Amino acid sequence: MLPPRSCAGKNFHSSHAASPYTRKIGLPRGTPTRGGAAELSGSDVAHLRMPPERRSRTKGDRRAGAMPRRKARPGSGSTPGKAARSSQRTLPAGPKAAPSAISAAEEESRLRQRNRLMLENDKPAAERCLEQLVFGDVEDDEDALLRRLRSSRGHLHGSSDDSEVEDEAVDNLSQKKPVWVDEDDEDEEIVDMMNNRFRKDMMKNASESKLSKDKLQKRLKEEFQHAMGGVPDWAEPGSKRKTSSDDESEEDEDDLLQRTGNFISTSTSLPRGILKMKNCRPANAERPTTARISSVQFHPGAQVVMVSGVDHAISLFQVDGKTNPKIQSIYLEKFPIFKACFSANGEEVLATSMHSKVIYVYDMIAGKLIPVHQVRGLKEKIVKRFEVSPDGSFLLISGIAGFSHLLSMKTKELIGSMKINGRISASTFSSDSKRIYTSSGNGEVYVWDVNSRKCINRFLDEGSLYGLSIAASKNGQYVACGSKSGVVNIYNQDSCLQQTNPKPIKAIMNLVTGVTSLAFNPTTEILAVASRKMKEAVRLVHLPSCTVFSNFPVYKKSTLSRVQTMDFSPRGGYFALGNEQGKALLYRLHHYSDF
Prior knowledge:
The protein has 595 residues and is an alpha+beta fold.
């Protein structure tokens, strides 16, 4: 009986001749047989059961038989022979192996196990230990590792849901009631609003000299929202900020890094607090006078300013902010000028006196001075106050006994008259020239329709006993009313047209004497208020915050004296005012680039 043979790949030689059965089953010549029959191992049977294409791939490995021996690593403590023998796995070849007991899947698993063992022998012990700690003990089943990795991936996807649950739990905790409440906190603490100048600006009326902490907190929130134009997104409760990992923020960062230059741009709106301005040379420096200035006005189309006074002269100056050269002076004999004004197109200058009913019209194109001695239908003995409509169609003359007379600007003929109760203190046109606002001496304001010359509304100026001045903004948003007590009420123009008792948006209480002059700048961002009763009594109010600029006039520097008249240039770049000392002071507002 022959000893059992191993399938380690050695070549055996036998004296037995190959039987016909050997050739019939397709074994190569020289295959050892016993008793005239082929001796087949388990691997040989599996090889015969393989498909032809797979059998050709594994043919070279089966012919090689044994694997080559590996050299032992230094310090491993084993000889090369032992390492080679440990890497070889011998399968016993029984005398008769059942072909149906071995499948192709088992053969494939055997080959994978053999390759894995070969790779394991090449790895250091530290690396094998680290893999075992990370992946676990998966020597016997590699599919277990794949299942473990898939389960860990699903756990990562589910972590976002867990974080949302945690966020909801935190929100629920934040909404719980406090465990302990201090009784002293429930007592309302009164805050004095008059001792702090910042709190004083937040007062709406004199009755709010003292407020509770809760009301002060609400007032601060209102001021903040008014300055910000609403509640910002980051201040909304429950709002979630975007993280830097969002796709939109990453795209914005990429765009930011792809270009260079100045990324900080100036705001188009005028900031409140401090007004950047420069004191220029007086507009009438080339024609000095000591007589009181009665009118200062900028030309609507040219870089020219007009200055007139009680010295019977009307002077035109070119505005450059440095020398302001004189263009022309017109002398009106025995005619101390009460008011002078440009026409809407800037081609004419109208002037009235304090003791005459004559209206002088100076034609700037022809260079002629035309006196209008009598207006047909007008019975006024003295004509002083007048207004020119913004569209240049009408001329409004304020008479005595509460009468207002509407004239045609082109022909200087009377169109119609309107009457109020009491005396007229001031009048102005709306920005579209469709309405007339008339302030009376008893604190009432009348609103007239120009086309029908009928009163469409009448309201009482809040807190006013005697009105002195009135002005309408260029954009048709505000109406400002100045009273004898020094208070300026700023109204929304729509409320003045619809309500009989409108509430002012803000009451400016920075003056203590009668407000005699009001002027809006062209962008409706500044309201100038002044009183001729006191020196340095002029303030510039920022809109829409309705706060006063703190740097004008300059503290402890008496340069303005008693302001008689004020005006802004057509695009807001210059601000001029005339005083009783005969100076037409000129200021450059740096926020506005144009004249």
